[in-house]
Design goal:
Length: 455
């Protein structure tokens, strides 16, 4: 059986490949999205004090550290039996928004846009962020400006620009100063202006593109707060492939509704609804689930989006527009929070004492989708078990099946051209997978086998 390999997949976070297997006639027999790195965080967290989890888990990834930081902190709230005060919750939400602005701007403008602005068949050596900067320097400058705002917001609220430290059990360890609020409010206004202007580019991004390519029909999962778009607080809703509500959950209840499993071609875990139905998470899922974004310009964009893709979008390329609408909403919400005088209040944390519950589950929406941190501890607060369910694992099935669907369309006479390979990569990029969050390589992991004959 002949094999075609696409490795590495470009313009994603981390390292992954695609293997396409051909039959004797040169036709696609099967194809898989493959990640063959070892994930280790769930094991080496065991034995650590639970208070260390919000400090250790942001090191999982430099792109989305805030989500891991906040999910761990929410799990600790449950273990210590505390509820953060209003100001603490607002600061946590603001910290998560900073990550959404930074991550969505990075992916949309720098990783995805080259395929559409420069062209899907543009030479690979040009079809990248450098080529985009040369072709459209103003777009590149605006992307850098909004990413800078996201980083400054993370640093001011989280304590560090990359791996934040200020989220602690019971809230946040430090308030936001008035001087920083004023500075960030001005930057938020500028970012919102850029986001609004960019919608003119985003809304037309998929014109002339076959948006049905790589479509895998699934259900969806994501957080919502009484029908409103939410990334920090609220139950997680489940949606069937045709839009029917399947239920919702919060905290430890997640195990009653979803399950993890593995396949022999990847070290990346998979997830599905209990009962066997598959689902997706992330921008596409969240916009399918919510009734409205709750902010003026994002709601207007959502109306346009639904007019094009319907109330329940299935096309993976629609992730790009959904991601941009979330980018607008994040900027609008940042403006609102930074205009709230209560955001600089000093009451940022509820004091904690002893372990109240032996298990804590923190759920938050990361830029790429629903993130679950599940910890079990002993009476002294030492972690005995840890389970992390990240967005890329939950989208793994759809990515894998989308890869095979596209491969069957673009492989001709047993050959895969560079342009055809990019069609496959585009489906993967639509999900904005974060391989660092989902798996972890420890060195090169060499394997040595010795056969010893006993006498």
């Amino acid at each position: 059986m002949k094999e075609i390999t696409v490795s590495p997949v470009t313009r994603i976070e981390g390292h992954a490949g695609v293997r396409v297997f051909l039959n004797d006639r040169g036709e696609v027999d099967s194809a898989h999205f493959q990640v063959v790195e070892l994930r280790g965080f769930e094991k080496f967290l065991v034995g650590a004090a639970i208070e260390e989890a919000p400090r250790i888990t942001p090191r999982i990834c430099g792109i989305c550290p805030s989500a891991h930081h906040l999910a761990a902190a929410k799990a600790l709230d449950g273990i210590f039996g505390v509820e953060p005060p209003a100001t603490g919750k607002k600061l946590r939400e603001l910290l998560n928004i900073g990550q959404f602005v930074h991550s969505h701007a990075l992916h949309f403008f720098m990783l995805a846009a080259p395929d559409f602005i420069l062209g899907r068949d543009c030479p690979a050596e040009t079809r990248n962020v450098i080529g985009l900067a040369r072709h459209s320097p103003e777009i590149a400058k605006k992307a850098i400006a909004v990413r800078k705002f996201g980083q400054r917001l993370t640093e001011a609220v989280g304590g560090k620009p990359i791996h934040p430290t200020n989220a602690v059990p019971g809230g946040m360890s430090a308030p936001l100063t008035e001087g920083k609020r004023v500075e960030l409010a001005a930057m938020a206004d500028e970012a919102l202006g850029i986001a609004r202007d960019g919608w003119d580019i985003a809304r037309n991004l998929l014109d002339g593109v076959d948006t049905d390519i790589g479509t895998v029909k699934t259900g969806f999962l994501g957080m919502t707060n009484h029908g409103l778009y939410s990334t920090y607080d609220g139950p997680v809703a489940m949606l069937g492939p045709d839009g029917g509500r399947l239920g919702s959950f919060s905290g430890p209840d997640y195990k009653n509704f979803i399950e993890e499993y593995s396949e022999n071609w990847s070290y990346l875990k998979f997830a599905r609804f209990k009962g066997g139905d598959y689902y997706r998470v992330g921008p596409l899922a969240r916009l399918n689930i919510v009734e409205k974004m709750g902010t003026e310009h994002a709601d207007a964009a959502l109306a346009e989006y639904r007019e094009r893709f319907g109330a329940v979008a299935q096309a993976p390329l629609a992730y790009h527009l959904a991601r941009y609408i979330e980018f607008i909403a994040s900027c609008e919400r940042a403006v609102a929070l930074l205009s709230d005088s209560g955001i600089t209040g000093s009451d940022t944390r509820t004091p904690v004492k002893n372990v109240v519950n032996r298990r804590g589950v923190g759920i938050i929406e990361a830029p790429r989708g629903t993130l679950i941190h599940d910890y079990s501890v002993n009476e002294a607060g030492i972690i005995e078990r840890c389970n992390l369910i990240v967005a890329t694992c939950q989208n793994n099935y759809a990515i894998d099946r989308g890869v095979e669907a596209v491969a069957r369309r673009v492989v001709e006479n047993g050959a895969l051209t560079d342009e055809a390979a990019n069609r496959i990569e585009m489906i993967i990029r639509a999900y904005d997978p974060c391989i660092s969050c989902a798996t972890h390589a420890i060195g090169r992991m060499p394997l040595k086998i010795e056969c010893i004959k006993r006498t």
